[in-house]
Amino acid sequence: MFAAASNALLRALLAPTCAVCDRPLTTPLDGPMCDTCVNGVRVMAPPLCRRCGDQRPAYADDHLCVRCRRGERAAVGLARSAGVYDGTLRDMIHALKYRRRRMIAPWLAERMRRDGAEVLEGADAVIPVPLHAWRLWQRGFNQADDLARGLRLPVWRALRRHRGGPPQAGLPAARREANARGAYALCRRARLRPRAWNRLRGATVVLVDDVMTTGATLNACARVLREAGVADVRALTAARAVAAPPPPPRR
Ligand SMILES: [Zn+2]
Ligand SMILES: [Zn+2]
C-alpha cells in the first residue's frame, strides 16, 4: 500500500523513465529499469563449462568446453557471467557505458552476486579490469569499477592498462589474445607499496568486467596477478558473448 502510494508519487513528481528503453517506469522504487527490460535478460543456459562457465553441448562428458580443454584462459581458475550478451543485457551495458546510465551498475552487480556466488565465495577482494587512462578520461568512469563496487567485497585497484591499443570490441577473436597480452601490468601503487604488494601474495581475487568475449582480456590480467603471487584468480562478468548454437541435427 505504502509502496504503491510512493510509486505513484514518484511517477507524478519526477516522471522517471527506464534507464535502458526510456519508457515511463510504473514502479520506480523497484529499480532504474522497466519490467520488460529486466525480464528480457537471458541467463546462461546449462550445461555450463565447470571451469569458465561457457555454455557447452550436453554430450561432452568431461564438463569442460573446447577452450578450456585446449588450455586457453588457463590463468583464470573459475569464471561465471550473469547473462548472455545480447538483446536487453547488451542494451543495458551500452546504456551504462555509452550513455552514462551509471545507476544500472548496482542492479547488474546484484545479478552478478546472485549468479556468481560460486566465484565470490571465499574471495579476498575484487579487482576491476582497468581502462586505459585516455579512455577513462573520455568516459569519465570505468564501468568495471562501478560493477566491482556493487559486489560487497574489498575492491583492489591493482592493475592498469598501460598500452592503448585498439579496443577488444573491434577485433576478431584471433587477434584479441595478441592485443591483450602485455597490455596490462600491476599499477604503480601495487608495485611500490609493500603492503599493497604483500596482500596480493597468496590471495584469492575475482577479476570483474562488463563483458567476457574470448576471455583474452581476463586471461591477460590474470597472468599479471599470478606473476605477482596471487594464488587463485577468478572472473565474474555481467555478460558473456555466446557463440550461436550449432544447427539442429538433420533427420
Ligand atoms: Zn526498459
Ligand atoms: Zn570452459
Task: Present the secondary structure layout.
Blueprint: H1 2-14, H2 35-39, H3 66-69, E1 78-84, H4 87-98, H5 104-115, H6 117-120, E2 125-128, H7 133-139, H8 143-149, E3 159-161, H9 173-180, E4 184-186, H10 188-192, H11 194-200, E5 204-212, H12 216-227, E6 232-240
Parallel strand pairs: 1-6, 2-5, 5-6
Antiparallel strand pairs: 3-4
Helix pairs in contact: 5-8, 9-12
Describe the structure.
This protein has about 250 residues and is an alpha/beta fold. It has two domains: about 1-40, no CATH class; about 75-245, Rossmann fold. It has twelve helices and six strands. The chain has helices at about 1-15, 35-40, 65-70, 85-100, 105-115, 115-120, 135-140, 145-150, 175-180, 190, 195-200, 215-225, and strands at about 80-85, 125-130, 160, 185, 205-210, 230-240. The strands form two sheets. The protein has a four-stranded parallel β-sheet, with helices on both faces. The chain has a two-stranded antiparallel sheet with strand order 3-4. Helix 12 links the parallel strand 5 and strand 6. The relative contact order is 0.15. The structure holds zinc ion (2 copies). One zinc ion binds near residues 49, 52 and 64. One zinc ion binds near residues 18, 21 and 23.
